[in-house]
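Task: sequence design from structure.
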């Protein structure tokens, strides 16, 4: 039976959420490709990871080697190349992250396999794989159809798929490490967390996003009052970053971050595809915009057509009153 590989991303003893999202996506695509979902786990002392992955895959290929404890593109490339040559997966999914983008291009070149990066949807049509990604600075969405090849490599954005445990019970295959003594031109030294200010919008449960409709920076206190009332963090669309009101780390969308809050409140955001591409993981979207034709209402669960400066102060006071 054919296989669909998903490369497991882990850091500091924890499997990253995007791994489970990609395993769910692979499970949906697997039957159409006649493929067996295979989690590819490279690391050191991997048994705890194996137990976490069992309900998510048909099969786990595990390579346990102390030299794989921390991600190293040179070492991972050598191991992944061997596994792909041995198992011939029809599709290999890799997270679109620093981890994935350090590895995927050189791996594809080594194996002479087609690579498409930064995808956020895949389809199987009549047995043919197509992938959706943006082009020309996010101005165009393009479905990429692959020429016939023995396999394909895709890097996928966070929140491209909803993580849903499939109830599988994976077979575990432990593979001897193929690494030689001299494996890498680089070596791991330490993790240094990037400075993201006072919040990480990708981890927030409630997010308020602001756009051009806020008009000017002096109006920010009105929005901040609502954020404080509901316990939300502030995010924004690209024009707000370009205006210098909020830092780049707060931008949601194709050129910013993908988020998956329980609640997203869009204030004065028109809802271009570049922005809404970052909202696929949101549970509930509420939009306030005075333009009834704004695209944001096409993705919103609840919408209010009105001036946000009439709605937001009232909403803030009502929430404060409910909280006592």
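Answer:
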């Amino acid at each position: 039976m054919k296989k669909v590989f998903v490369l497991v991303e882990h850091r500091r003893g924890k499997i990253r959420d995007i791994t489970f999202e990609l395993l769910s996506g692979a499970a949906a695509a697997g039957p159409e490709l006649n493929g067996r979902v295979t989690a590819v786990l490279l690391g050191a002392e991997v048994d705890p990871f194996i137990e976490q992955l069992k309900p998510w895959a048909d099969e786990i290929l595990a390579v346990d080697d102390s030299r794989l404890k921390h991600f190293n593109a040179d070492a991972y490339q050598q191991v992944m190349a061997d596994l792909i040559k041995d198992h011939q997966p029809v599709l290999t999914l890799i997270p679109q992250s620093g981890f994935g983008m350090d590895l995927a291009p050189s791996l594809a070149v080594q194996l002479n396999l087609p690579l498409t990066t930064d995808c956020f949807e895949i389809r199987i049509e009549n047995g043919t794989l197509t992938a959706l990604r943006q082009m020309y600075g996010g101005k165009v969405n393009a479905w990429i159809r692959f020429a016939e090849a023995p396999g394909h490599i895709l890097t996928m954005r966070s929140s491209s798929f909803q993580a849903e445990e499939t109830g599988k019970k994976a077979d575990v295959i432990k593979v001897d490490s193929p690494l030689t003594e001299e494996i890498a031109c680089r070596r791991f030294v330490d993790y240094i967390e990037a400075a993201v200010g006072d919040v990480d919008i990708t981890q927030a449960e409630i997010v308020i996003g602001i756009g051009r409709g806020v008009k000017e920076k002096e109006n920010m206190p009105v929005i901040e009052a609502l954020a404080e009332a509901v316990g939300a963090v502030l995010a924004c669309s690209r024009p707000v970053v370009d205006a210098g009101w909020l830092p780049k780390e707060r931008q949601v969308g194709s050129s910013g971050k993908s988020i998956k809050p329980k609640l997203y409140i869009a204030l004065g955001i028109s809802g271009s595809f570049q922005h809404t591409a970052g909202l696929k993981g949101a549970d509930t979207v509420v939009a306030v915009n005075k333009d009834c034709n704004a695209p944001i209402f096409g993705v919103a669960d609840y919408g209010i057509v009105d001036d946000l400066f009439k709605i937001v102060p009232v909403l803030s006071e009502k929430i404060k009153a409910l909280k006592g």
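Residues 101 and 155 are 8 Å apart (CA to CA).
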